[in-house]
Amino acid sequence: MQIVFTCNKCETRQSKIFTRMAYEKGVVIVKCDGCGVQHLLADNLGYFYDSTGFTKCRIAAHT
Asked: What InterPro entries does the record tag this protein with (predicted)?
């Protein structure tokens, strides 16, 4: 699978590739090529959100 998106922080337009299995059954996190911020695209395992939609933990920032 492929996604083309614009980062909402730095406005960099980019394309990322990931597997369909990861998107439908796992976790997909993509890193912005412009500013390095990490975007959570899919969390089917509940690592980052609980059933009420609140964030359980933060994605580690790149330093």
From this structure: Mt_import_TIM15, Znf_DNL-typ
Structural domain including 36 reads 1-63
Q: How far is CA 31 from the centre of its chain?
A: 7
Average pLDDT over residues 53-63: 50
What's the structural domain count of the chain?
Answer: 1
Q: Distance between CA atoms of 55 and 47, rounded to whole angstroms?
A: 9
From the centroid of its chain, how far is CA 37? 9
The four Cα atoms 16, 21, 23, 27 give a dihedral, to 10 degrees, of -100
